[in-house]
Amino acid sequence: MCRFDKTYGSLLGIYWANSDLVRKALHIRKGSLGEWKRCRTDLYDKDIHSSFPYHVNLSKKGYRSLIYNCDHDLIGQVAGYTRTYSNRMTFATVKGGGHTAPQFNPKQCFAMFDRWISENPL
Fold it and tell me: Which GO molecular function terms does the record list (predicted)?
């Protein structure tokens, strides 16, 4: 994929994510969130709050959850495994994925999600 395609895809993603129809489908209350941006570079100079409370909330409600990262993300951590816990939470890594794994590795991300949603081993 050439750089133009990646840039164009990112631009289309911005238009898509900020569409009123998409926001309505995702049940985002009008005025609750500002404009969606692909990368929030303004966050890099701040501490990122933990996502732990969200994981605890999902676990308490008994929801299955899939949390994944990529091993080529400059702001991520090196990984390469899957692990499922008794609280139905699965952590996985997309090998060779970038900061936005579905953009750089759509087939692998789809396969991971398809297996997970079908309750097959990753």
Answer: serine-type carboxypeptidase activity
Give the model's pLDDT for residue 105: 78
With beta carbons less than 8 A apart as the criterion, state whether 93 and 79 touch. Answer: yes
User: Domains of the chain by range and CATH?
Assistant: 1-38 (no CATH), 59-122 (3.40.50.12670)
What is the DSSP track for 50-112? PSHHHHHHHHHTT--EEEEEETT-TTS------EE-TTSEEEEEETT--SSHHHH-HHHHHHH
- pLDDT the model gives residue 107: 84
pTM of this structure: 0.52
Q: What is the pLDDT of residues 51-106, one digit of tens each?
A: 778 888 888 888 888 887 666 655 564 435 677 777 788 888 877 777 777 877 78
Enter the DSSP assignment of 115. H
DSSP letter string over 16-55?
A: HHT-HHHHHHTTPPTTTS----S--GGGTTSPPPPSHHHH
